[in-house]
Design brief:
Oligomer: single chain
CATH superfamily of the domain at 14-182: Spore Coat Polysaccharide Biosynthesis Protein SpsA, Chain A
Number of helices: 32
Number of strands: 10
Strand order of the largest sheet: 3-2-1-4-7-6-10-5
CATH topology of the domain at 14-182: Spore Coat Polysaccharide Biosynthesis Protein SpsA, Chain A
Largest sheet: 8 strands, mixed
Distance between the termini: 138 Å
CATH architecture of the domain at 14-182: Alpha-Beta Complex
CATH class of the domain at 14-182: Alpha Beta
Length: 734
């Protein structure tokens, strides 16, 4: 929409000049954002196209007073001078096609309408985003508004500026949002810029402004690029010499060297550079000081020097507040990018300060630091390892759970309503055992107005009656978010604890997470294994129950039987499970698995030649059946041999196999002992027989012989013993 304010023959108050190429993505938003200015003051819009192949020109013609064409020649000044030459306004404002003014342009309008305006130039804030979500950015003050005087020209083929430069300059707090340096787009632009800057540098090798822009074209991913940035920064300091502390390029150079050292993890070098910076600079607080203090805090924090980190962060926060209030000297922002003057970095510094206080167990100060961090945002929630971690750490150690419901609600409003899951993760990590502190924390959340699955879980955990627990359990079992995470394993615990329908709960859970459910409960609920085994004994399945019920039953039993040795998957430590109870559980498991296999597999699949296609656990059960059959048919020795083979084939079942192996060996030992005792007793009986026969007590000896023959009818010595009664008598010595 073209401005209607300018009267015929009237000189515009401001001419807006733009150069564009293939900017259809942003151009219309850019031009619409100028509408408040164009409607408020007499103005003209001049757009110079440098060779667009998209709809850029078509869009420009709908808004611009003039659309001019320029053949690109790798010279930004030459293109901008075309718009400047066509400008007739008292002021000249230039923008790019991907720069979009913020909605409140009032300060620009007020500046243009200022009576007897004493300024020669004015700056805007260019906010350069590094992501399309606009969560990461740095701010520059860019001089974009000039009093239009005869002979004024753009100079420089790249990062051009207008000459002559007219002072004084007014800093206008209006933001031009700029996506031109988003990752991916930025790399292409920097390659183009680097080529043009190197050409400019050949003309004037000691132009520190060109050197500054050249340093910015080198990335941070390659070591060689980081080293080149540092080299250029040192060259800037050398060129400036003794005048350096008063020059914004000197400030930029130190900022660049510190950042490069941090990238290389050369923390001692970075600290030394920061120390030199504050020693040598001549002025009071500057915007760059805010950046330096943030760097300093990060370094001390990473090195676990918490008191020094806290001091640096608190100084950063003081400068941040001055900057936000417009009370900080920002003359250096024409050269230095201000990246940490954003709520995200301020919040992260608060979390870091909270950690510093936690180390000293100063919980009142820790809480104050957390309060200063403000509400959770999408960005701080992404760093839940800092934000929610330290919040839960405070609640756990200080025993103050008052912040938890608000944090849960804030998280639940983020990530498209999924942020409560992040809260749940960190809460469960910190309160890993279900002790009284966790019960109290859950109660505080349960009593809040929070309406999300985790708040409902807390209400289930703290339910006062069985009826209340059943209602909450049913609600959670119907919630897809609740049944798809092992963090909600307490749904199983509540089911068993209150003696609810276990199959109903199991059918709602995600079977692929079965082992993680057990792991979670094993860590959090020490009484879970015994509680579960008791439930299973008291609620046996019927043969008519469907296969899925038997599947879950075997999973539950196996979770109690698996060995806790280091080389196997540890699910439970089970001191409650003595040998007798373990044997009972093992037999119930084997019976259940046998029944399940027969339900789901055709008989042919259970034949030896087809078993390779079966899961290992099912092959184990078949092997167990074979061992039992061998024991009945060939005795314990054959059974023991098969168990040994199974121990090699199924190491995960070592505790189960070991128990029955030990029992079989004990049985063999007992049989051997019984046999030896019987043989000794038989020998004693025979000796007594021979003594009676030798002494002529034939009737008594005959009675003993008859009794012995009944016990040992196959003893070949019976014939000899009978001859003692029928023929000559032998003494024991004979």
């Amino acid at each position: 929409m073209k401005a209607k304010v300018k009267k015929p023959g009237q000189r515009p108050l401001v001419s807006i000049g733009m150069i564009v190429k293939n900017e259809e993505k942003y151009l219309e938003d850019c031009l619409k954002a100028m509408s408040p200015i164009r409607e408020a003051v007499p103005s003209e819009l001049i757009v110079v196209d440098t060779g667009s192949t998209d709809r850029t020109v078509e869009i420009a013609e709908q808004y611009a007073d003039q659309v001019l064409h320029f053949e690109w020649c790798d010279d930004f000044s030459a293109a901008r001078n075309v718009s400047l030459e066509a400008a007739s306004g008292e002021w000249f404002l230039y923008l790019d096609g991907d720069e979009i003014l913020e909605e409140n342009c009032g300060p620009i309008i007020e500046f243009l309408k200022l009576p007897n305006n004493p300024y020669g130039t004015a700056s805007l804030i260019q906010r350069n985003y590094s992501d399309y979500e606009h969560t990461e950015y740095s701010d520059f003050h860019m001089i974009r508004l000039y009093r239009n005087i005869p002979g004024m020209r753009f100079q420089g083929s790249i990062h051009e500026s207008i000459n002559p430069f007219i002072v004084p300059t007014k800093d206008i707090s209006v933001i031009a949002h700029h996506d031109g340096y988003v990752q991916g787009v930025n790399e292409k632009k920097q390659q183009r810029n680097q080529k043009l800057l190197l050409l400019e540098l050949e003309k004037n090798p000691e132009d520190v402004r060109i050197l500054r822009h050249l340093a910015d074209t080198y990335g941070l991913q390659k070591v060689s690029d980081v080293e080149e940035r540092t080299r250029i920064a040192r060259e800037i300091i050398r060129i400036l010499g003794g005048n350096r502390p008063d020059h914004t390029e000197w400030i930029y150079a130190y900022h660049t060297m510190v950042f490069s050292a941090i990238i290389r993890r050369e923390y001692a070098a970075a600290q030394q550079l920061i120390k030199e910076f504050f020693q040598d600079k001549n002025e009071g607080d500057l915007a760059a000081d805010m950046e330096m203090r943030y760097y300093q805090g990060n370094i001390y924090f990473d090195c676990e020097e918490y008191p020094s980190a806290r001091e640096a962060y608190l100084e950063y926060q003081r400068l941040y507040q001055l900057y936000q209030d417009g009370k900080l000297n920002t003359r250096d922002v024409y050269s230095v990018p201000i990246a940490f003057a954003v709520p995200y970095n301020y919040a992260m510094s608060c979390y870091a300060v909270a950690k510093c206080w936690q180390v000293e167990e100063n919980y009142p100060e820790m809480k104050a630091a957390l309060e200063h961090a403000g509400p959770l945002t999408e960005k701080t929630l992404e760093r839940s390892d800092a934000s929610l971690m330290i919040e839960c750490l405070y609640a756990y150690e200080a025993g103050d759970f008052s912040r938890l419901p608000v944090l849960l609600d804030q998280a639940a409003s983020l990530k498209e309503g999924e942020g409560w899951k992040d809260f749940t993760i960190w809460f469960e990590k910190r309160f890993d055992l279900y002790l009284q502190s966790k019960q109290d924390a859950c109660l505080v959340i349960a009593q809040s107005d929070s309406q999300n699955p985790f708040a409902q879980l807390c209400r289930l955990r703290t339910a006062q009656t069985r009826e209340q627990a059943q209602e909450l359990l049913e609600q959670l079992l119907d919630d897809p978010d609740a049944v798809k995470t092992p963090l909600f394993a307490d749904l199983l615990y509540a089911t068993v604890f209150y003696q609810f329908d276990l199959q109903r709960t199991l059918s709602a859970l995600d079977s692929s997470l079965v082992e993680r459910y057990w792991e979670t409960l094993a860590k959090q609920r020490p009484d879970w294994p015994e509680l579960l085994d008791t439930y299973l004994m008291e609620h046996p399945l019927q043969e008519s129950d469907p296969p899925v019920c038997w599947f879950w039953q075997t999973r539950l039993m196996l979770s109690l039987l698996l060995s806790p040795e280091p080389d196997t998957k540890v699910l439970f430590q089970q001191p409650w499970l003595d040998e007798e109870r373990f044997a009972s559980l093992a037999q119930r498991y084997l019976d259940a698995m046998t029944h399940y296999c027969r339900m789901v597999y055709q008989p042919a699949m259970l034949l030896p030649e087809n078993r390779v296609a079966l899961p290992a656990e099912y092959r184990f059960v078949i092997g167990w059946q074979e061992a039992e059959a061998l024991q009945k048919e060939q005795g314990d020795g054959a059974c023991l041999q098969r168990l040994g083979e199974m121990l090699q084939e199924f190491p995960l079942m070592n505790r189960l196999i070991g128990l029955f192996t030990a029992r079989t060996r004990q049985r063999l030992e007992a049989q051997k002992q019984q046999r030896e005792e019987f043989e000794a007793l038989a020998e004693n009986v025979k000796q007594q027989f021979y003594r009676l026969a030798s002494d002529g007590q034939i009737a008594h000896a005959a009675q003993i012989l008859e009794s012995y023959r009944a016990l040992c009818p196959d003893d070949p010595e019976l014939l000899l013993m009978q001859s003692q009664l029928d023929g000559p008598r032998y003494t024991l010595e004979s």
